[in-house]
Write a structure and sequence with these properties.
Layout lengths: L10 E5 L4 H11 L3 E6 L14 E3 L5 E5 H4 L5 E5 L5 H11 L4 E4 L13 H4 L7 E6 L14 H7 L24 H24 L4 E5 H8 L2 H9 L16 E6 L2 E6 L3 H10 L3 H5 L6 H6 L1 H12 L4 H10 L4 E3 L3 H6 L1 H5 L3 E5 L5 E5 L23 H9 L3
Helix pairs in contact: 1-6, 6-7
Organism: Zwartia hollandica
Protein name: CoA transferase
GO molecular function: CoA-transferase activity
Length: about 400
């Protein structure tokens, strides 16, 4: 029996752009949903212009397709619609009749002028699952303000716990190296949509999903939130060290850097034996994680001094042999050359209309019976306009 993709038969009207919304809808597209990406005529999604780098054509020349845009729009179809025109608004509503989900990331109230906000559409489309992604949500004093990943990383607390300690060289707030707030918001939105689909199977009704960057970002802080909520003390930057586990950080070797992630006291004893200091593993000052946290300032310099005398790969081999979690710090080119990454087939290539292929990072979702299919690279602007209008709306 041939089984269909998990979201086969589900259609998504995607009015989002940049990252959080498109990341959500790319997940849905990977799972088999038909995602129709609505874009502004001639300009399209903002990220189409966020380059270089750009995709190369079959002759090795730059196309107009920015790598940023390619990273978050595969498996979708693109249609150009002018929302500023009555005809464009009518087309969106016509398409909405044939869709299960609508995803948008306009500012709060931004679609009301077009009659495309949830309140304007809910009665006409009672089964539609309408997902709004905004900076601060639909309620509260900041609701109407725009929100961007970088500012939310600062406002939401992540930058207060990311970066080297203030009293050390290079100390100070630091953002993450990728737009983690947008990504996690896209993931939460995906989960919420899947839950709403399941609920609709019971009730037969759609609903409004209010997903905010700030909310998702704060939720993502996980144990750091609880460190504050249980102690009353706001966590501070600790560089590459862990707030709650010791030793769990970066160590400098004679030829590079490595990570050691000692998760329990048994691993710590194995770690000490491998370093040639087995007595540390039973010393009351270090034998338990609680003791190691209290005596961190004494313990870590001793460990750093020992690790600095050996080569990175030699240490990794030695620690792996005794079951201590550890690993190298790799550049992204080294990541894709790693045998585990190659074995997991994480680099994919998809045929592209400009000629040749477009690379994409494989979805981390693996299904035994209905694997993710990479049918389409990120679409060209308006690539499927005629196709969608004919197929779904029956227009000439």
């Amino acid at each position: 029996m041939t089984r269909r993709a998990p979201l086969s038969g589900i259609r998504v009207l995607d009015l989002s752009r940049v990252l959080a919304g498109p990341w959500c809808t790319q997940n849905l597209a990977d799972l088999g949903a038909d995602v129709i990406k609505v874009e502004r005529p001639k300009l399209g999604d903002d990220t189409r212009a966020w380059g270089p780098p750009y995709l190369k054509d079959e002759n090795g020349e730059d196309t107009t397709e920015a790598a940023y845009y390619l990273s978050t729009n595969r498996n979708k179809r693109s249609i150009e619609i002018d929302l500023a025109s009555p005809e464009g608004i009518k087309l969106v509503k016509e398409l909405a009749k044939h869709c299960d989900i609508l995803v948008e990331n306009f500012k709060v109230g931004g679609l009301k002028q077009y009659g495309l906000d949830y309140e304007s559409m809910k009665d006409e489309f009672p089964t539609l699952i309408y997902c709004s992604i905004t900076g601060f949500g639909q309620t509260g004093p900041y609701a109407e303000r725009p929100g961007y990943d970088f500012m939310i990383q600062g406002m939401g607390g992540l930058m207060s716990i990311t970066g080297e300690r203030d009293d050390l060289p290079g100390g100070g707030p630091q953002k993450a190296g990728v737009a983690v707030t947008d990504i996690i918001t896209g993931m939460y939105a995906s989960v919420a949509i899947l839950a709403a689909i399941q609920e609709r199977n019971h009730s037969g009704l759609g609903q409004h999903l209010d997903i905010a960057l700030l909310d998702c970002h704060i939720s993502m802080l996980a144990n750091q939130n609880l460190n504050f909520m249980t102690s009353g003390q706001a966590p501070k930057r600790a560089g590459n060290a862990h707030q709650n586990v010791v030793p769990y950080q970066v160590f400098k070797t004679s030829d590079g850097f490595m990570i050691v992630a000692v998760g329990n006291d048994s691993q710590f004893r194995s770690y000490c034996t491998a370093l040639g200091i087995p007595e540390y593993g039973t010393d009351p000052k270090y034998a338990t994680n609680r003791a190691r946290i209290l005596n961190r300032s004494e313990l870590i310099p001793s460990l750093e001094k020992i690790i600095a005398t050996g080569e990175r790969d030699a240490w990794i081999a030695k620690l792996e042999a005794v079951g201590v979690p550890c690993g190298p710090i790799q550049t992204i080119d080294q990541v894709f050359a790693h045998p585990q990454v190659i074995a997991r087939d994480i680099w994919k290539n998809i045929p592209h209309p400009t000629g040749g292929t477009a690379p994409t990072t494989a979805s981390p979702m693996h299904f035994s019976a209905t694997p993710i299919q990479y049918k389409r690279s990120a679409p060209m602007l308006g690539e499927h306009t005629d196709e969608i209008l004919k197929e779904i709306l029956g227009k000439s």
